[in-house]
Write a structure and sequence with these properties.
By secondary structure, the chain is α/β, with parallel strands linked by helices. The protein has seven helices and ten strands. The strands form three sheets. Strands 8-1-9-10 form a four-stranded antiparallel sheet. The chain has a four-stranded parallel sheet with strand order 4-3-5-6. Strand 3, helix 2 and strand 4 form a beta-alpha-beta unit.
């Protein structure tokens, strides 16, 4: 099902590119979604979704894994950072340093036997950032999980009426960005009982560019 008329979205993406001059870095392209008639003071009504983009993110995604020596050996070639229980103790002792690490890592994954310790000791750092690790059962090969995470984005409204979701980069084609945008909208709209009624507006923009509005009437 297409939630945004494809030609409308491609037109908006092209316009967003046009209004964003060339820069010395690769800009992200994102959707800005405005909500209405939702009580976001109730956490149950907030958007907190992880969405796999069919055309990928178009940029590097950094993943860190906490695990035993056995797990570490399995992921050393597919994870960006690999930590053991001894590293967990170091992070607890210097949470300021760990905060800097957490800011530069997109997703954390951890062996399920370590989840309780991580939640208790580092939950205050990871929780507000939406980066509580995904659990891996002992003995399981997480290669497929990590591969999927590299194409995954978070859609988090928290208690804000407007929130942003990356759909790729400026280097990607309009077609690929449109397909990614549809995947995001499908998940977000599908979360609400009233569907499109709870969407007040959708915008497309580059990270440093002007937002191009798409009226709710363009969403179907």
């Amino acid at each position: 099902m297409k939630y945004l008329a494809e030609n409308k979205l491609k037109t908006a993406v092209a316009e967003a590119r046009k209004q964003s001059p060339e820069r010395k870095f690769l800009e992200t392209v994102e959707l800005a979604i405005n909500l209405r008639e939702i009580d976001l003071s109730d956490p149950k009504n907030r958007v907190n979704e992880e969405i796999i983009l069919p055309k990928g993110r178009g940029k590097e995604v950094r993943i860190a894994v906490f695990g035993s020596d056995e797990l570490k050996s399995k992921v050393k070639n597919v994870a960006d950072f690999v930590y053991g229980p001894e590293d967990l103790s170091k992070f607890v002792e210097d949470k300021k340093a760990f905060k800097k690490i957490a800011e530069n890592i997109d997703f954390f994954v951890a062996e399920s036997t370590l989840m309780a310790s991580i939640g208790k000791s580092l939950g205050q750092v990871l929780g507000p950032r939406g980066k509580i690790p995904k659990p891996i059962p002992p003995g399981q090969d997480p290669t497929n999980m990590l591969s999927a995470l590299r194409r995954t984005v978070r859609a988090r409204s928290r208690d804000k009426r407007t929130f942003h979701v990356p759909i790729g980069t400026k280097a990607m084609s309009d077609d690929d960005l449109a397909e990614n945008a549809n995947a995001v909208l499908k998940r977000v709209i599908g979360k609400f009982e009233k569907g499109l009624t709870n969407i007040d507006g959708v915008f497309v923009k580059t990270s440093m560019g002007k937002a191009v509005r798409m009226d709710v009437g363009d969403v179907r």
